[in-house]
Amino acid sequence: MTADGLPVELVIQTSSGVLEGRFAPREAVTILATQGPQATAAARRLARSDPERAGAYAEVLGAIGRELRTQADQAEHPATLRSVLRDLVAILDALTS
Asked: What's the whole-model pTM score?
């Protein structure tokens, strides 16, 4: 794992933790608020230095994002899940730019 990969992997773990029930969406928002800016910057660097790994991370985040979107569409109060999705999209965009 590269230093640029670590913040992105932490975001993957956090967001997948919402899907697995390890984190409530509110907990994930709090965690992502601290990890998100670092992960976005790291994702940009990773896209330049290791496009193959960036692509793999983008695929994983895309799959997680699709699942979270489905949950948000079915949730009674989807705002928190949508906030998690916004953070994922920012990192996904950085990985693919």
From this structure: 0.88
Report d(CA 27, CA 38) in Å as an integer: 18
Angstrom distance (rounded) from CA 17 to CA 64: 10
8-state DSSP, 77: S
Count how many domains the chain has: 1
Token pair for 37: 């800016």
Give dist(CA 32, CA 81) in Å, integer: 12
Structural domain containing residue 84? 5-96
Residue with tokens 């994922």: 88
Q: Do 60 and 12 touch, CB atoms closer than 8 A?
A: yes
Mean pLDDT of 28-32: 90
DSSP 21: T
CA dihedral over 13, 8, 50, 97, signed as positive or negative: positive
